[in-house]
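hiii, so i know i said id send this last week but things got crazy w the move. better late than never?? heres the sequnce for the chain we talked about at the cafe, plus the structure i predicted for it. fair warning i was half asleep when i ran it
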Amino acid sequence: MNKSGWKSADEIKFSLRDARKVSIFACGVCANLSETGGVKGLRFLKGLLEDWGKEVLLAKCITACCAEEIMRQAVRIHGRAISASDALVVISCAAGVKSAFLCCPDTRVVAAADSVGSVPVSRQDDPVARSICTNCAHCVISFTGGICPVSECPSGKKYEPCSKYPDSGHACAVDPTRDCIWKEIEIRGDLDALKELGRIHAAVGDERLSSPANMV
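okay and structure toks below
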């Protein structure tokens, strides 16, 4: 799923500084699972905006904000309230906010959450579940046992450990308060293959396979 996190109260206040009447859409899928959207997030934000003196004309949870057709249908159904609002606040990842921009050109769209990255839907306390995808363009997790080294390594190393990689022990050389994630990758993944993958990525650059629809 695409993980999202609440923006700060200061940023939301700033974005709505001159908006008196507002509508709210909350995503029922990824943002809901991130505990920002869904009914729970919708009620929380509605109460917060009302505490700030805003008049909430509409507060609805929709199936998935990222799908333009779903967003367009919601805008059509609730068009009167949205048109009467100074802003439509969207609780979703960036994809849902973009859908709102495509469907509400005459109403200001305000994002209430930030996209953090993609994560599995899991309750496990494991580096695979914990490491958040940062959309770095060339994914390497096939060779790291599913762990994203870019998000988990303080040095941001992708294809190999940093030069201070500990020969003994497990403490991170950059942040001694945490374990070196590359020790775990060494156990679960293939460091030699990862280096070769780095050379392949450097050689192909942004080259991609064509989608099946475009292949002959």
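btw The chain has a mean pLDDT of 91. thought thatd interest u
miss u guys!!
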